[in-house]
Structure prediction request, 290 residues.
Amino acid sequence: MNSTVRQFARALLSWLTCAFEAAPTLVLVAVFFVVGMSGTLAVRTAHAQSYGGAIATTHHVVGGTPVSGDVVSLDPSTGIFYLAHTVADKNAFGVVVYNPTLLLSDSTGGTPVATTGQVLVNVSADNGPIKTGDLLTTSPTPGVAERAGSTTPYVIGTALSAFPAAAQLSASSSAATGTVQLLLSIGPNNASRATSTPTVASQQPTAGGVGSAVLFRFVKYVLAALVAAGTIYVAFRTSNAAMSSSIISIGRNPLARRSIRSILAADAAVIVLISIIGIAMALALVFVPV
Prediction:
């Protein structure tokens, strides 16, 4: 019995020694994984910016219950977010969107508000029908946008669709509300913006954006391969010495063969477990949506 305990203790000590020696490799694998996830986030951000997807952050909005498409403003003196309710609000911040391409959130929760990209926005025809290419601004109706005039000082972006649609035009439609596609571009209404309209080319991904996405995708796959290979290497390196010692011990002490076989089985299980973890980490890097 004492001999069996000694063999087990020796094998355990050997395994722990190898684990300590492999610690730098484990740290390197962890770094690869973190860098890979960061690269994935960068790819998603580049994709959203290039293809017009909405990028949103969460904020607590006061003054009403915000719904998708509402325009939100930010009081710079208090840091409070509220539903925009004045014409041409210079504090306009973004539009509520519950299905953004990329959502950056924190533990406090809140309402997702997009500040860039293409979104659906709630609009009113109180200031006239909205045509594709019109600039939009905030209105007296909380959370609702309207067509901006040529002298409107602040706008929130460019309409990519019309409201009311041609089939809906009527004498009573001026008071109606609905939604239009909006390309967010919040800021002063200067002359160049007032005369510009979005073109198909401007909404296409740029060569730089596509090139960056391809580069990050390649780096992500390389990092995934390194994570998988590095983890499997760590698993075998950590358990190899302990398994070798156990095999030698069987020849020296045949009476402890059963206990040593149990140790070998445990070592093999450790190898499989660590390898599975590494492969799972690599697959996470590869299949996280971009």
Observations:
- The longest strand covers residues 177-188.
- The chain has two domains: 2-46+208-287, 53-205.
- The two ends are 58 Å apart (CA to CA).
- Helices lie at 2-21, 23-51, 191-194, 207-252, 257-287.
